[in-house]
Amino acid sequence: MSVYALTSGRDYSLFVKARTHETVVLDAGWSDEILIHISEQARVELIVPQGVYQHHIRIIQEKVSRLTIQERESWQGSLDWEITLMEPYAVCHILTRVACADGEIQEHIRVYHEAEYTESRVDTRVVLYDMARITQDVTLVVPQGRTGCKAFQSADVMSFSSQARGHIIPRLEVSTDTAECSHGARVRTITDRDVFYLMSRGIDFERGKQLILEGFLDIENKS
Hints:
With 223 residues, this protein is mainly β. The protein contains two helices and 16 strands. The protein has helices at 192-200, 205-216; strands at residues 3-8, 11-16, 21-25, 33-38, 43-48, 52-61, 66-71, 76-85, 91-100, 104-113, 119-128, 133-142, 150-159, 165-174, 180-182, 185-189.
């Protein structure tokens, strides 16, 4: 195996060998402190399935490693990500595409660019129904002297309920003028008027809302 797992007390550790390509599924049953070490040139897809989480996850990436975190199912609780890009050309992408009907999501993401020519991208799209709530706090850190780094954050929250709440906190801590960085957030509520155009084309109200949802979350329409 190219993934080694070690459990000790409250800690759960994963070690991904160099030059391998692995898919790791986060398990809510793991201990609340998780360490993932991604070796040189390894590629890891980390999937967050539906579940209830209260976890602090530390990730260390060596040179030319690539991490993709996929959140495509609604989960509840709290996830605290601490990701360190330790060596040049390490890449981390966090892609969130979820629809939440109830409960609360609290997510804290902090990415440290500790080497030159590293890249991070946090791309979030969330749909909220009823009384669902999400708080996402993202900080991308690029210290002085880290040439050629790229750090991007974007978040778009779409609500189908006046009682749902979305709170996005984007932060950039950049101490060099050689980095390429951007950040932004938008929270909006979909009303009946937004569906009117589709209804004027013969699409009923519920199907119109579904089409908006599928387009927003990049869901392939197979019907």
